[in-house]
From TrEMBL:
HAMAP family: MltG. The keyword Cell membrane applies. This is Endolytic murein transglycosylase. It comes from the Bacteria. Its EC number is 4.2.2.29. Transmembrane segments: none annotated. It holds the Pfam family YceG. The record marks E210 as: Important for catalytic activity. It is an enzyme of class 4 (lyase). GO terms for cellular component: plasma membrane. GO terms for biological process: cell wall organization; peptidoglycan biosynthetic process.
Length: 336
């Protein structure tokens, strides 16, 4: 009888050794892939799915290992990344820890709400809930039916998990914008020509569209702030282009600059009625802390940067210089 018990123990030890060796062997994963565990899915079904996917050849080993270690009921739902070299033991620990795959969505600086919606609709991971709604209905879902959506979502990269909805992501971006704007507004420079933080946001969106050179943002902000303070029109092309909508075909004509629309800052005084694009924190900071200096004009140099001028005569000379260099697509903002 003692011999029989010994044999049982020996066979058990050998079996347990084989099971441990199995869960420590790499899964047959040639390239990264994902495993989706639905909420409420039982462990046996998870093992069956792994077997169907040819990831587990000895499902009984996995079941025994999980049962003996009390792991079967601790697995969390979610999407898990399977990479080459991953073992069953490590995979189980990831599922117990809820170490799910993080996805990333970037609200790009300078994009419009229409472009953001297109980006959301093209996303195959987010749960789509907004595609049949118009802009005002989307804002109503966010509790702001009267709010114009442009510029109201912070340009930033957001982490999210599979199962999150497009509305959830917009809500996060909306909250992030409010927080960033409120913090910057509290630390703003004195004597700015804004009646509200919303006007500062509008200015930030213009700055965002005028330059992609980070160091230039405060200086461009200074140009526009001084123009407002001196009663000069902003005369900035991006606002005109935004106001034209689908009518803009890639080139601004003189007739476009004289047509009086709410967004034509060549024809109106002050700021346009709403932001014209999504902004990042740097543009908000620039709008609220403009660089001091004499400049009232700038012109694109053709390399992404701008030439700044304090006097109109100097600006006109710079325009002629860069117009000759880049006759087809030069831009002069403000125009004088």
């Amino acid at each position: 009888m003692a011999v029989g018990a010994f044999l049982v123990l020996l066979l058990g030890a050998i079996a347990w050794q084989r099971i441990n060796a199995y869960v420590d062997s790499p899964l047959p994963v040639g390239e990264p892939r994902t495993l989706l565990i639905e909420r409420g899915q039982g462990f046996n079904q998870i093992v069956a799915d792994l077997e169907t996917a040819n990831l587990v050849q000895r499902p009984i080993f996995l079941r025994i290992y999980a049962r003996i270690n009390g792991l079967a009921h601790r697995v969390k739902a979610g999407e898990y990344e399977l990479e080459p070299g991953l073992t069953l033991r490590v995979l189980l620990q990831k599922m117990i820890d809820g170490d799910t795959l993080r996805h990333f969505f970037t609200v790009v600086e300078g994009t419009t709400f229409a472009q953001l919606r297109e980006q959301l609709e093209a996303n195959t991971v987010l749960l789509q809930t907004l595609s049949e709604l118009d802009d005002s209905e989307v804002m109503a879902q966010l509790g702001e039916p009267e709010q114009h959506p442009e510029g109201m979502f912070l340009a930033e990269t957001y982490q999210y998990l599979r199962g999150m909805s497009d509305l959830d992501l917009l809500r996060r971006a909306r909250t992030s914008l409010d927080e960033a704007l409120a913090q910057a507004w509290e630390k703003r420079a004195s004597e700015l020509p804004y009646e509200s933080a919303y006007e500062a946001l509008t200015m930030a969106s213009i700055i965002e569209k005028e330059t992609a050179v980070a160091q230039e943002r405060p200086r461009i902000s200074g140009v526009f702030v001084r123009r407002l303070q001196q009663g000069m029109r902003l005369q900035t092309d991006p606002t005109v282009i935004y106001g034209m909508g689908a009518e803009y075909k890639g080139n601004l004509r003189r007739s476009d600059l004289v047509q009086k629309t709410p967004y034509n800052t060549y024809a109106i005084e002050g700021l346009p009625p709403t932001p014209i694009a999504m902004v990042g924190k740097d543009a908000i900071e620039a709008a609220l802390n403009p660089e001091a200096g004499p400049w009232l004009f700038f012109v694109a140099k053709g390399d992404g940067s701008h030439h700044f001028s304090a006097r109109l005569s100097e600006h006109n000379s710079a325009v002629r210089r860069y117009q000759l260099q880049r006759r087809e697509d030069y831009r002069s903002t403000p125009g004088g």
